[in-house]
Amino acid sequence: NAGVTQTPKFQVLKTGQSMTLQCAQDMNHNSMYWYRQDPGMGLRLIYYSASEGTTDKGEVPNGYNVSRLNKREFSLRLESAAPSQTSVYFCASSVTGANTEAFFGQGTRLTVV
Amino acid sequence: QKEVEQDPGPLSVPEGAIVSLNCTYSNSAFQYFMWYRQYSRKGPELLMYTYSSGNKEDGRFTAQVDKSSKYISLFIRDSQPSDSATYLCAMRRSNDYKLSFGAGTTVTVRA
Which of A27, A64, A113, B71 shows the smallest number of beta carbons within 10 Å? Predict the structure, then answer.
């Protein structure tokens, strides 16, 4: 059972480049989330999708877009990467919208130079 | 000021010691409290979950919530080197999707 799978695991981008982070879960969860983790800041919610077909902004949505492709997949897109977006990105999923028991992926380490 | 404050440590203890971790928060509307464990270069995994005030025990782990003081704690008894990780507190309001996380405390248990 793979759980939550994120690709890629590592990425280096130049300022202004775009990329999409992929996330897929095989637990039949309704809700999915994208967080970023920075030193001393904890995890901050970027976007979430309470259910298939819906997405909402979290705490730090600027510079990002998301797509809930189907129940399994939730992608995060950086249209024009900036050095401030250097971070570790985590995708998570939960059974319901109340994400008390969120399951996290292994993370994507993104560096923007 | 952050909604959730957590001392980042690092905290180093000998094997067998009791590890004590805590978080304070400012939002009195928080009702659900969680502790996540995160090993180096891995995603967080849920360790303990508590609703409202009180204690919860699971094996060597005990979580405490004191809503009157806006203070939560995690205790690890008989600590093992395998407990070396970063521990993140998290909390949310009722019917709210968003979790508010502390910055995490890095713990090292020395063999």
Answer: A113
A48 contacts chain B (CB < 8 A): yes
* CA dist., res. A72 & res. A27, Å (int): 8
Chain A residues whose CB is inside 8 A of the B90 CB are 43
* Average pLDDT of the segment spanning A45-58: 92
CB contact under 8 A, B43 and A4: yes
Segment B44-51 shows an average pLDDT of: 91
Are residues B92 and A100, on separate chains, in Cβ contact within 8 Å? Answer: yes
Q: What distance in Å separates the CA atoms of residue A106 and residue A62, rounded to the nearest whole number?
A: 23
d(C-alpha A66, C-alpha B98), whole Å: 17
Q: Exposure string (b/e) for B34-45, b if CB count within 10 Å is 16 or more?
A: bbbbbeeeebbe
Q: What are phi and psi of A34, to 5 degrees?
A: -120, 125
- What would the pLDDT profile of A72-105 be if each residue is shown by its tens digit? 999 999 999 999 999 999 999 988 755 567 899 9
Residue A100 has a pLDDT of 63
Cα B77 to Cα B56: distance, rounded to the nearest angstrom: 14
Instruction: Looking at the complex, report in whole angstroms how far the Cα of residue A64 sits from the nearest Cα belonging to chain B.
Output: 17
- The sign of the torsion formed by the CA atoms of A74, B99, A97, A29 equals positive
**B93-103: pLDDT as tens digits:** 887 777 899 99
